[in-house]
Each structure stands twice: as C-alpha cells, then as structure tokens.
Write a structure and sequence with these properties.
Number of domains: 4
Structural class: alpha+beta
Number of helices: 21
Number of strands: 32
Length: about 750
C-alpha cells in the first residue's frame, strides 16, 4: 500500500470513528465507565463454542462493525468467524450505512483447540460504542482480555484495557498497527513534561513532542493546590499553529516544543507551592490522548521543582477528537481529486514550461536568447548550448528538490521560494542582475562570446556559461509559482524521495524545453534571424530588463528591511559597478585586480551590513484595503463568532500574488462582495520570515504563496481556492461560505 493510500485510509478511519462526537458543552460526570456502559460476560460451557454477551446500558449503543475477536495465544487455538445478529440500520455521515445494537446482544465464536488437553482459552475482545444523548460522545475502542475455563460458564477478565502501549487511545483502535504504521507512543514519550523555577515568583513549563505530535493550548489548565493565597497569573503563551477541529472548532496547537512562562501571584511569602497542570494532545492523523494531569511540587527557596507522574484518574469520557485535516498533499489547487504520479509529472512539465513566461524569468531568458541567436550559424553549437543550459537547469532543480525534501523529511518546514525571504539572498541577486546588465551594456566582458556574457559563473564563455545561466534561471524562477506548478510540487513534498526527485527534474525539463527545441529541431532554428551587427544593439537593449529586475528586488528588500537596507545595497551596487568598470578599462594592468578586489570587498561589506538590520513589522506592510492582519488568535476569534473569513497568504516577491491582487482582490467589485457576504478579508504577509504564517502554509500543505482559504459561516473546514483567482471563482466561494 502506498504512503498516500495509507494516509487516506487512516484519515477516513479516524473521521469515521468520531463522526458523532460534538464538542462537550455539558458535563460528562454522569457518563458510565466503558465496561459498565457495555457490560461483557462470556460462556465457554459448550465445547468448541464461546458465547459473548453484552448488556448495553440505556441511551448507549454498540457498533456491530467495531466488534473484533481474536485469540490471545494463536498457537493454541484457531477461531472461526463470529456469528452476530443483525443490528439496527443507521446512516453515519462518514461511515455510511452501519448497524448498531441497543439492549442486549450475543455473539457466538466457534473455535478449535490445537492441543485437546488445553483447559483455558484466552481471547482479546475489542468493541466500541457511543452515548447517543447529550453529552453525545463516542468511547475509544476498548479491549478486554478474557481467560475462559473451557467447559465452564465463567469469565476471568485479565484486564480491561482501553490502553495501547501505555497511552489511552481516543482516536483509533488499540489493535497492533500493520507493518509500516507507527504505534502511538506512551504518554510520557509523546509529551515529555518539565517544570523549571525561573525565579521566586514564576515557573517555566516545557513540553517536548516527537514529530507529528501536538499539544492543545486551550486544553491546558494550571491551578495551585496549595498553599492558600497563591494563584496562577496569566501564562505567556507563545505564538502557535492555527488548527481546526471538527468538534473543538478553531484552536491553537504546538508542535516540537513549547515553553510557557507562568507567573505566581502571592508567592512572595511562600517557601513551597503545589501545582496541578492538566493538558491534552494528539498524534496528527491518528489518535488523541485523554486529559493528562501532572502534580508539581515546587521548592521556591531551593529553586527546584519535582513533577509527579500523570494522574491515573482519567475521566470516563474525556474530550476526544481526531482533528480533521485539510486535503492531503497532492490535491490540485482548488480541487478535490488527488494528483497521481503521471499527472504530477505532466503538471510539473507544464508548470516549468509556463515559467518561461514569468516576469522574474524573462530577464535571464533575454540573456540566453543572445546565446541562441549567436549559435544560429552552427547547428552543432546550438545543440551544445541547449544541452549545457538544460544541464544547468536540471542540476539546479535536482539540488533544490533534494534539499527541500531532505529538510522536510527531517521534520522541518520549508516552502517554495523561501530564499526570497532572506535579505542577503535578495541583495546578492541585485548584484548579479546589475553585473549581468552592465556586461550586456558593454561596460565589461569576460570572454569574447556575445551569448555568454554576464557576471561571475553565468557570464563565462563556453559550456560553463551556458550551465550557470541555467542555474541562474532556476534561482530567480522559484518565487513564480506558476499555474500547474503548485500541485506537482505539493505532490513531490509528500511523495517518496525518488518520485519527488523525478518531479523536480520534470519542472526543470519544462523550463529548458524551448531551448532544447531550438537546439535540436532545425526547422525551428531556421526561423531565427541570421547573426549580424544588429545583435550588439539587441544585447544592449536586453540589459534593461536586468536593471528592472534589480529595481524590483530592491523594492522587495525595502519591504523587508526598510530604506536603510536599500541604501546599503545601492551603495554596494555602485562599488560593484565601479569595480566592473575598472576591470573593463584596466584589464591586464598589474594593479587592476587589486583595486577591483578592494571595491568588491566594499560591496560585500555593504551587503553583509543588511543582515543586522531589524525586520519591518508585518502589520505595517498590509495595504489599506480593509484587510485584517492574520494571526491565529484573530482567526479563531472570528471563527468562534461564526463569521465567514477569507485568508490570503501573500508576499511582495510573489508575482502570482500581485497578479491576483490586480485582477480581483484590489477591485471595487471584490470589496462590495465582502460587504454583501459579511466576509472578513484576512491577509498574511510572508515577504519576510514568519513562523506563524509558515505553520499555516504547512497546515494546508501549501508549497508556498499564494494560498487562499475560505472558512464558512457558522463553522466547518476551510476550503482552498486556486492559486490563480478569477472574480467568478471568488464570488462563488464567498457566497457558498456565507450561505452554507
């Protein structure tokens, strides 16, 4: 079974198990323990047959399809197929048509002993049921270990265990996971808890979770048990990850590790305090643990804290949920159908091809166009240029793909185009574009070939020039998440390493395809004009897109680090231009390299100084368009009030984002649509590094920006829109969200 199929199966199973489980708005103190709600007895008096009988309490029901019986010692006995009566037919939103039991139900299980001298029979009986009136909850699957005396009517329960591997599983079966599927960790391993004394009046609580485990913020409660007069102040929660539960609604969760400063009020005269900390968390796409309580004894004088084991007094029906997640990676933008491998390869190829038309790629292609035109006098030279350029593109995509997939496999988030969030990377690209433009303008040259001009590696003659021009094309192409490209990259992020590698290569092949065709199809090559003196004029003319690209990058840098950063990079650019001018004028002179090197060092120092400048506030970058700056807390507040919300994750370096704003989001018609539907427009600015927005992108398995998510009125899962917006598609989505 593929990893995608396993993910889909687990997601559907988890949703189905708790389809009837709403938020517990009422007290569950009167709910029965699971073994009293579904009282099980057995009868092994008839040789070769075991009868199991459940007496189901009023207002409870048992799922027929959730009853599973197996031998605890398979080598000693062979079990036949259990015989169960027909149940009451019931339609479940996720399980479909099911059968349930009320009152009493009996199952007959035939068996054959391997050794006729065996006098006891050990069975593991698993079942699951629900409470069907308020508070409506479903119990976790419960397993009872029975040891039966063959020939007698007795039940010897070895243990009634709703626990697997030490963790109470509230979102999945307690049976052993199949090969390749991880078991849930014991609670102490899933949520490693520590308490530190910061000073006499405050504590620091720390939770550390393995990959894919998360802790709920609003399920955490901290109370002082003793002494009287000491209370807990307002905990200083850090920013978390926005998470939507079908039953808990919008909430905030924490992955990896969270540290929580907790002030103690009135503790100045106390020497020691005792604190109870209750918390709850889940395994993503898996199970949720019951509320866990830790008892902390703090010696304020010695500055030490001892943490007790988790309380064994778990509630009979702790709030439980398998949080529904957004569609898994590999969904087409705005669609619901998963993208298969062949489709992902096709979309990647097409997406790479479309990148050739993007404004951030065109300047580099202008540089390459000179090479192709120059090589028109020789078909062999044209093929050579095309092959080396393609090799550079493919190598860059392969390295980028391996780095991104490798980082994500290690449990760290990274999104497409994230290098444009780094001021140093932006400044370096400004220098590259400026140098390439100056070379094309004739300020300096490296080598004699018109087609292999530029700066550094990309400007060298021969194969290396073609190769590194391809690399440069990939570097500046990444912020242009073109149509057809997002789904393929999302599929690559979720796919095995080999498949992901092929998808990134397909993206590169699509980007290089036009030049491959020119180099290898003589009919296309013959359409190109013959080389001549006009090429020098064209080369100088094409330098100006390079300068404009540098201007755009400076604008992005201004948004990230302000005018001081722009001034530093401009000053460095002047030093770089002087160095290249001097190199072009004095090439061959003994001191030319020394002077050029000094100027280059000055340009590098100016660029490095940008690194120490503070980031600009995201709220200052939100346009005056009536939007609300994104925060998980504000989104949860709006969702809790039943307000429809459109979340727009954007960035100043995202060309597709700007095109969508121009065509739809900045129009009067869109503003009128927001008013008509009562929708709040929430905007997140990812121009600079922002862990909160990165977590939101990760939550919706988005490889980058733009990301548009519509939340319906009154609750429900968010719906992703296409990365390329039209007014009609947005209007349809917001109308549906306002009138679910």
């Amino acid at each position: 079974m593929t990893s995608f199929a396993r993910l889909a199966r687990n997601l559907i199973a988890g949703l189905a198990l708790f389809a009837a489980l709403p938020a517990l708005a009422q007290s569950d103190d009167d709910l029965l323990p699971v073994t009293q709600a579904f009282h099980l007895t057995s009868d092994a008096s008839q040789p070769g047959m075991v009868k199991l009988h459940w007496r189901i309490a009023p207002d409870y029901y048992l799922y027929r399809g959730r009853i599973k019986i197996k031998a605890a010692e398979p080598a000693a006995v062979t079990l036949g197929e259990p015989t169960l009566p027909d149940g009451l037919k019931k339609h479940d939103e996720f399980l479909g048509d099911v059968e349930i039991y009320h009152g009493d139900v009996e199952a007959s299980v035939p068996y054959t002993l391997v050794d006729a001298a065996t006098r006891t029979l050990a069975l593991d009986v698993q079942y699951q049921g629900c409470h069907e009136v308020d508070p409506k909850i479903c119990y976790p699957p419960n397993t009872e270990h029975l040891k039966l005396a063959i020939g007698g009517a007795s039940t010897i329960p070895a243990a009634a265990s709703p626990v697997a591997n030490g963790a109470a599983l509230l979102g999945g079966p307690t049976t052993t996971a199949s090969a390749g599927e991880a078991q849930a960790l014991p609670v102490d391993q899933a949520f490693r808890f520590e308490a530190l004394v910061k000073d006499h009046g405050s504590l620091l609580l720390r939770w550390t979770m393995p990959k894919d485990y998360y802790l709920y913020r609003d399920k955490t409660q901290i109370t002082v048990a003793s002494p009287a007069g000491v209370t807990v102040g307002e905990p200083d929660w850090p920013s978390g990850t926005a998470h939507h539960d079908e039953h808990f609604g919008d909430t905030i969760v924490y992955f990896d590790q969270v540290e929580l400063p907790v002030p103690l009020n009135g503790a100045s005269g106390a020497t020691a305090v005792a604190i109870d900390v209750a918390y709850q968390g889940c395994l993503e796409n898996g199970i949720c643990y019951p509320v866990m309580t830790r008892h902390i004894k703090v010696d304020l004088g010695a500055g030490t804290a001892s943490v007790g084991a988790p309380s064994e007094e778990q509630p009979a029906a702790a709030p439980a949920d398998v949080a529904p997640t957004p569609p898994p990676p590999g969904l087409a933008p705005g669609g619901d159908a998963p993208v298969g491998f062949i489709a992902a390869i096709g979309l990647a190829l097409l997406g790479g091809l479309v990148l050739n038309l993007m404004p951030c790629v065109l300047p580099v292609l202008s540089l390459k166009a000179i090479t192709v035109l120059e090589s028109g006098e020789s078909p062999g030279a044209a093929r050579k240029h095309a092959l080396w350029y393609t090799a550079g593109v493919l190598a860059a995509f392969a390295v980028l793909g391996l780095v991104i997939v490798g980082i994500r496999a290690a449990g760290h988030g990274i999104q497409w185009g994230a290098q444009f969030q780094q001021p140093l990377a932006i400044g370096l690209l400004v220098y590259v574009m400026l140098a390439v433009g100056l070379s094309m303008s004739g300020v300096f040259e490296i080598g004699g070939s018109l087609g292999n001009v530029g700066s550094g590696l990309a400007a060298r003659s021969g194969p290396s020039g073609d190769f590194f021009t391809g690399v440069l094309a990939v570097v500046v192409a990444s912020p242009c998440t073109a149509p057809f490209m997002g789904s393929a990259i999302a599929f690559a992020f979720a796919a095995p390493l080999g498949v992901a590698f092929l998808i990134f290569l397909a993206l590169g092949l699509g980007l290089a395809l036009p030049f491959l065709l020119i180099g290898f199809v003589p009919a296309i090559a013959r359409l190109l004009p013959r080389p001549g003196r006009w090429m020098e004029t064209l080369k100088q003319l094409l330098a100006f897109p390079m300068y404009l690209t540098a201007v755009w990058l400076l604008w992005v840098l201004t948004k990230q680090r302000g005018a001081d950063a722009t001034a530093l990079v401009l000053a460095g650019g002047v030093l770089l231009a002087m160095a290249l001018w001097w190199y072009g004028r004095s090439r061959g002179a003994r001191l030319s390299w020394v002077f050029t090197g000094v100027l280059m060092v000055g340009a590098a120092a100016a660029l490095w100084a940008v690194h120490g400048l503070p980031a600009q506030g995201a709220a200052l970058r939100v346009a005056a368009d009536g939007s609300v700056p994104y925060s998980p807390e504000k989104l949860a507040e709006l969702r809790g009030a039943g307000t429809p919300v459109l979340v727009d994750m954007t960035a100043d370096w995202c060309i597709t984002c700007k095109a969508n704003e121009k065509a739809v989001l900045d129009t009067d018609a869109f503003k009128a649509l927001l008013t008509r539907t009562g929708t709040v427009y929430m905007k997140g600015d990812w121009t600079d590094v922002n862990a909160t927005i990165a977590a939101f992108l990760e939550q919706y398995h988005s490889v980058g920006v733009p990301l548009y998510v519509v939340y319906p009125k009154g609750g429900g899962d968010g719906r992703k829109l296409s990365t390329v917006l039209t007014y009609d598609s947005v209007e349809k989505a917001l109308e549906a969200a306002a009138h679910p």
